[in-house]
């Protein structure tokens, strides 16, 4: 990658780089882009994706049950037609 491109990107990012840093980053970014070109040459897969671990349904079946009777939960609360009555909101 050209060091002038690195310099303009550094200026946009408000970074002040020395000439030595510009040269170093331009070489490193060139290596990174070369690695991406190698990845572009990799053959494409026919399937949608690859996962070495089989993905299975891990959710449990949801069975509703009453562990505490509703009368015990409502005992001692201010009720209005079996609805919990709270303070008035302004």
Using brief descriptors, characterize the structure shown.
90 residues; 41% helix; 3 helices; two-stranded antiparallel sheet; mainly alpha; 4% strand
- Estimated share of beta-strand residues: under 5%
- Gap between N and C termini, in Å? 63 Å
**Poorly predicted ranges:** none
Number of strands: 2
Please give the count of helices.
3
The largest β sheet comes out as:
2 strands, antiparallel
Order of helices and strands: HHHEE
**Structural class of the helices, strands and pairings?**
mainly alpha
Mean pLDDT: 83
Q: What would you call the shape? A: elongated
CA-based gyration radius:
32 Å
Major β-sheet strand ordering: 1-2
Assign a percent range to the helix content: 40-55%
Describe it for me?
With 90 residues, this protein is mainly alpha-helical. The chain has helices at 3-12, 19-40, 70-74, and strands at residues 79-80, 83-84. It has a two-stranded antiparallel sheet with strand order 1-2. It starts with a helix and ends in a 6-residue tail after the last strand. The model has no long low-confidence stretch (mean pLDDT 83).
């Amino acid at each position: 990658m050209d060091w002038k491109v690195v310099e303009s990107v550094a200026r946009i990012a408000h970074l002040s780089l020395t000439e030595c840093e510009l040269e170093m980053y331009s070489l490193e970014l060139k290596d990174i882009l070369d690695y991406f070109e190698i990845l572009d040459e990799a053959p494409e897969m026919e399937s949608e994706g690859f996962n070495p671990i089989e993905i299975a349904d891990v959710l449990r079946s949801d069975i509703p049950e009453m562990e505490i009777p509703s009368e015990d939960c409502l005992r001692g609360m201010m009720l209005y037609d079996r609805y919990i009555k709270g303070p008035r909101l302004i």
